[in-house]
Please model this.
Amino acid sequence: MTPADEKELSEIVAGATGPLRVKGGGTRAIGRAIVGEVVSVAGLRGVELYEPGALTIVARAGTPLAEVEAVLAAEGQRLPFEPMDHRVLLGTKGEPTIGGVVAANVSGPRRIQAGAARDSLIGLRFVDGRGTVIKNGGRVMKNVTGYDLVKLMAGSWGTLGILSEVAFKVLPAPAAAACLSLTGLSHDRAVAAMSAALGSPFEVNGAAHLPQTGQTLLRIEGFATSVAYRAERLADLLAPFGPAAVNHDGAAVAAIWRDLRDVAGFAGRTGDVWRLSVKPSDAPALAARIGGEVIFDLGGGLIWALVAEGTDLRARLGDFAGHATLIRADAATRARIASFQPEPAPLAAIAARLRAQFDPRGILNPGLMIG
Model:
C-alpha cells in the first residue's frame, strides 16, 4: 500500500486488521524481519516549505534525502548532522528518504559537533497506531512546542507512528575544509590525540581513527582563511603525537569523510557489522576484546566493528558502559540476536507504556526493536 497523502495514510492505519511493515526507501535492513502488510510512504513526497533566511525546511516524509539536500545546496545550505547512506555498508538498493532519516535518527561524523538528526528536528506530523494524525513542534526554529514528542519520534523506527512530514533547522554550508592526518598511532594514542583536538578551540567537527590504514583523521570546516589558520594551529597542538599532514583539497576532504560516514571500509566484505556507542576512554580496551577489525569515529565514542558472521558481540564483551547495535548480518543471525541493545527493566517498562499509548493494537513494525 502506497498512500498518496496523509489522509489516506490515516485511513489505511485506522482500517488495518493486522501488522503493518512501514517502509521508507528500503535502504536500512536492520532489525528482525517484520511479517505484515507493507505501507510505503513513497507517495508522501515533496518539499513543502523552504525558507533559507529562516534556516528551516519542511518536507513530506517520503521525499528522497537527495532531493532535500539538492534544494539546500542550491542556497548554500545543508543538513547539519551529515546523514549516513546505509546502502554502501548494507549493499541495499532503493533511495533514502528524509522520513527514514528521522525514524532511524541517522547521522554521521559531524554528530560530534552538530548532534544527530533529532537535534536539528523542530517539528513533525505522524499517524499513530489508531490512525490519528498528530502534529508536534513547529516550522520555525523559535517554536519548541511539544519538544519532547518531536525528539521521541526520532529513532523510534516506525514503532510509535508513521511519519508524514518533518521540519528541520539547517545551516550554511562551509566555504572550505581541511583534513589533518596522523599516522601510526596506537588506539590509546589515537584517542588521546582526538580528545586533544576536540578539546581545543579550533572547532574540529570530525575525529576518526582507522587502524587498517594507520590513520587518525581530524576535520575542520569554515571560511578559507579561518580553516587555514586553525589547521596550522591544530597541527602545532598535535605535534607531540607526530607530524600532521594537512589536506586542503575540498573535494578530496569530502570524499574521505563520505567514506567514513558510510563505513565504506567494511562494505562488500564478509562478516557482521556492529555499531558500539561507548565512552571514548573505554574504546581502546573494548577494541582489543572485540576480536575483529574496528573503526573509531566521534573521537572514539563510536566503534564500528567487523566480526565473524553469527558473532554475538554483546555476549563476547559482557557488561560495558554503552550499547551495541547489530547493523549488518544475515536474516538468520538477526532472528537469533536482537539488533538493538536490550533495555534495562525500568526503561523497557517505559518503552512498553509508550508503545501501548501510541500503538495500542501493536500493529506498527511489531517486534522490530524488541529482543
Summary: Confidence is low (pLDDT under 50) at residues 143-147.
